Amino acid sequence: MTFAVEANCDGLVGPTHSYVGLSPGNLASTRNAGEVSNPRAAALEGLAKMRRLSDLGLPQFVLAPHERPAIRFLKSIGFSGADETVLEDAWKAAPALAAAACSSSSMWAANAATVTPSADAADGRVHFSPANLLTNLHRSLEGEQTTRALRRLFPDARRFAVHDPLPAQPHFADEGAANHVRLCAEHGGPGVNLFVWGRQAWEDWDGAFPARQTREAFEAIQRRHGAARGVFPRQAKAAIAGGAFHNDVVCVGTRQCLFFHERAFEDRVAMERAVRTAAADLFEPVFVEVSEAELPIADLVASYLFNSQLLAVPGEDRLVLLAPAETRDNPRAYAVAEGLAASNGPIGRVDYVDVRQSMRNGGGPACLRLRVVLTDEELEAVNPAQRFSPDLHKTLADWVERRYRDSLAPGDLADPLLLTESREALDELTRILSLGGDFYPFQRTA
User: Fold this and answer.
1) Which of 218, 250, 323, 435 could form a disulfide with 264 if both were Cys (CB 3.0 to 4.6 A apart)?
2) What confidence tens digit (pLDDT) does each residue in 90-136 have?
3) What does the longest C-alpha to C-alpha distance in the chain come to?
4) Which amino acids are annotated as binding site for substrate, given as ranges?
């Protein structure tokens, strides 16, 4: 078996981080719409979380924010003139579209792509399919730039295959790794891939909130990646109705352990049977289920217990759960979390991290990262300037302190000065991370 580790690629929060409430079904996003955000604090919180993982000995990488406001999008829908004029006119004539063009949602890198490690891929390369995210307008703007970002981070075509997003059609609605879990005995060995879907392409969906992932999208990704041992459980309709817009709100897994809520899957028994069958002769899966009685769905969504990072930390015999501070603050969720650590199960320790700025938009620790299993040789082929280190932490924290506002109301997004500030900040960032002078659209049209 080839040795490999699970690296985390975190999305860096962008200068336009705001609470506009763009995501139906994301209860936190809706609840906090209109509030004042703090982009500086949000970015520093994200960097502090990256530092936590790097200090644990886990490879950590930084994904740059997307250019926002997305002036090219606004021009494509009929606004014209100087970029500052385009922004002002869009906010006056079509504020909902202007708000979508300003979203900093690329920070949630769990939606960036679905990843198949080389141990599971037919051609022995690491495969990425950037998500088309077409269910919500503001997120559907991300696919092209995400593809560019992944190709800069993973440039060696001999080792990495970064595909284009799936066709931008409702039949192939795809939300990336937020609905994908990989289980295995060791990261470098063969695994079982859980592709969790909310609806089928031709299904007459009648839920109160959208089911964002189709089964057909994941089937297409499995085919193009040549991904072995795929299992396709359905996310429970009750979970979606309760505010679990992605499977990673109700489920997280790594190595042999799948940690999930009673209402995560439409048919839990069938899911477990399919996973055991796919894992036969490879490893024995460990299922850790939390019941509705222990943690009602309302507390689950408020605490984001399952939107934690489940980590195999070097030197520790059992897994570490890195949960949001909201889990610690919710009595029921905290009791479940601490009960895990006190048991003899696979999770030996629960740590807590403050990402409150992200949480207020419905994104916990797991939302902020894309997991990529890499061998030593693959690690060496990743863009070294994007690998997190204490020195990079210091450089990026200084950059954030200088470049980001500490207060941003939704109305401030119409400020043309914010467009200039954001572009100047991102232009400097491309030099820090060695992304090239053509990384962002404004750099290619200047």
Assistant:
1) 250
2) 999 999 999 999 999 999 999 999 999 999 999 999 999 999 999 99
3) 64
4) 20-29, 111, 138-139, 212, 248, 361
